[in-house]
Write a structure and sequence with these properties.
Length: 158
């Protein structure tokens, strides 16, 4: 059972999701099932089958979240000495040398990754290309969209 690295905010988000799934969504689904049951014949009852499917998906997600939390290796980068090295949980400020665009990413675990929020999975091509590098390094990364060249402008442990 591998430990799953998580940031503190990632762990909090998962705990909130678990509470929601167990305390809000689970009872809602139970209500839907009992309502659908009251409509009679279960063989041809689409509402019943849809509710049972929803229940199955919800229970599966509950198990998945509980498993991630159980395996969580919570990493608090604010407690690490920042020597400019890119590590899990750090925020990396980059300059794309091909487009001159500046961008920043926070390297996070799989369940936290959200590109719209600039949270990238540390095992993604860009994440793997950055881990272990240092401030001021020039980095060439192979991505599905082709080669990208970056300069690491800054690394923050926030």
């Amino acid at each position: 059972m591998d430990k799953e690295p998580l940031t503190i905010s990632g762990l909090e988000k998962l705990k909130k999701e678990l509470v929601f799934l167990k305390e809000k969504k689970r009872p809602e689904i139970v209500t839907l099932i009992s309502e659908a049951r009251s409509h009679g014949d279960l063989k041809e009852n689409a509402e019943y089958h849809a509710a049972k499917e929803q229940q199955s998906l919800n229970e599966g997600r509950i198990q998945e979240v509980e498993d991630i939390i159980a395996r969580a290796n919570v990493i608090d980068v604010t407690k690490l000495t920042n020597d400019g090295k890119v590590v899990f949980g750090s925020t990396v400020y980059l300059q794309n040398l091909d487009t001159n665009e500046k961008i920043d990413y926070k390297l996070v675990g799989k369940d936290e990754a959200d590109l719209k929020k600039k949270l990238i999975y540390f095992k993604s091509p860009i994440g793997k290309g950055l881990i272990g590098k240092n401030k001021n390094d020039l980095v060439e990364i192979s991505t599905p969209a082709g080669q990208k060249n970056f300069e690491i402008i800054d690394v923050k442990y926030v």
